[in-house]
Specification:
Largest sheet: 6 strands, mixed
Radius of gyration: 19 Å
Bound molecules: octanoyl-coenzyme A
Number of helices: 12
Amino acid sequence: MGYEHIRVESKGRVGVITLDRPQALNALCTPLIDEVNQALTQFEGDDKIGCIVLTGSEKAFAAGADIKEMSELTYMDAYLGDFITKWEQVSRTRKPIIAAVAGYALGGGCELAMMCDFIIAADNAKFGQPEITLGVMPGAGGTQRLTRLVGKSKAMDLCLTGRMMDAEEAERSGLVARVVPADDLMTEALKAADKIAGFSLPIAMMTKESVNRSYETTLTEGLRFERRVFHSMFATEDQKEGMAAFVEKRKPQFSNK
Ligand code: CO8
């Protein structure tokens, strides 16, 4: 399939989506988001893909929603068109998805990265929620996901001042899982994705679902959910294979069943 604003490729069992709108620092215009959603649907339906990496360029993961597209939007356009809801497909993706972030991840760009399961950042990455400087506030998780990830104080600081934070601060505050040299970003992201894709896909998906459940529920209910899912894993062939391989001192051959 031909795409205008993204590049899509498979590397072994890893599906890679690269935002590719350099003239606008990967600003997230509606056609770009439509393409990301199509690529996600394609990878979700492909048995040969076990993990997805979402990335941008060295200069920008994404500099936010497209301000030029948004500037003339009316309240009714936004309300009746349900602006932003369809942008959340990344967060509904069931396969594991890693954001590999270099350069600017601002506004909707930071929010898009936070919709992924974890962020690997290049040491030149810059994160921020500068919407307040434009007379609006974050609309795709910047006041919600960011607060859960970095806590109220830092989320308030970022959302109210609009300042950027560098990769080192982002890792220290829990937004980012790891920071790597910019030149190694894709190598490291692909290594992590390849590792995940080498495990049992249903087990990885259930693990993701269980970690995500911790955001949505109480500890008691979350633990109950985790226990039920854990019990169900003993109905899989991959549990039998994984444990037999350990006992027999060999590498497991997961069948995704
Ligand atoms: N939208 C549209 N165009 C953009 C955007 C953007 N967000 N960011 C950069 N561009 C364009 C510039 O207009 C410029 O185009 P042109 O050459 O035609 O004028 C080109 O990209 C290069 O940008 P700069 O010349 O500004 O590059 P600099 O290196 O000088 O500066 C910055 C880089 C600091 C990143 C600067 O471009 C900037 O501040 N950009 C805007 C950042 C911002 O405010 N982002 C938040 C947008 S609001 C938002 O995201 C709401 C979220 C809604 C939900 C989204 C769901 C996923």
